[in-house]
Specification:
Blueprint lengths: L12 H13 L6 E2 L1 H7 L5 H4 L7 E2 H22 L5
Antiparallel strand pairs: 1-2
Helix pairs in contact: 1-2, 1-4
Length: 86
């Protein structure tokens, strides 16, 4: 199932938000984000971090992995700064 980042068989709120962002950015509806489309929903400077196979496009699995890394990084920052919420 696309955007089921934790592979639990369900789409949680964060995964649904990622899917909606991806669809909003995919102006050509080809299932991948080119650099211009990516820049509509993410920081354009992060394109290379998401495009893991370096084909010039970010497909659904790459976007999903990139968002998971962003979430993990934010969670780590929150822990370090004490911004922890239940």
């Amino acid at each position: 199932m696309a955007f089921d980042g934790n592979r639990d068989g369900y789409i949680n709120q964060a995964e649904a938000r990622d899917a909606a962002e991806f669809r909003a950015g995919d102006m050509t509806r080809d299932g991948a984000l080119n650099p211009a489309e990516f820049g509509r929903v993410e920081n354009p400077r992060e394109f290379g971090q998401y495009d893991s196979n370096r084909d010039g496009l970010v497909d659904t699995p790459e976007y999903e992995r990139g968002e998971a890394r962003e979430f993990d990084h934010q969670r780590e920052l929150d822990w370090e700064t004490g911004n922890i919420f239940p």
